[in-house]
Amino acid sequence: ALLEDTFERAKEYDEPIVVHVVTEKGKGYRPAIDDEVDKLHGVGQFDVATGQPLRSELKLTDVVG
């Protein structure tokens, strides 16, 4: 609700305005919270219940070393 109110207030200005929003990835999803590296951001398909990948994907470092 606070973000919606902020956007409504921003629309009232007759000039460009910046609304800076700080987000927290993985909020409420335990596998994402536990993933310290990237919070499950930008991953392939995975099992929602476990957070584990559905298949092992080849990585660039596996190919080029």
Describe what is shown at a glance.
The chain is mostly helical.
Write the layout of secondary structure elements.
Blueprint: H1 2-11, H2 30-34, H3 60-64
Give short descriptive properties of this protein.
3 helices, elongated, 65 residues, mainly alpha, single chain
N-to-C span: 49 Å
Strand content: under 5%
Mean pLDDT: 81
Main beta sheet: none
Give the helix level as a range of percent.
25-40%
Unreliable stretches: none
> What gyration radius follows from the Cα positions, in whole Å?
19 Å
Order of SSEs, N→C? HHH
Describe what this molecule looks like in 3D.
It contains three helices and no strands. The protein has helices at 2-11, 30-34, 60-64. It is elongated, with a radius of gyration of 19 Å. The mean pLDDT is 81.
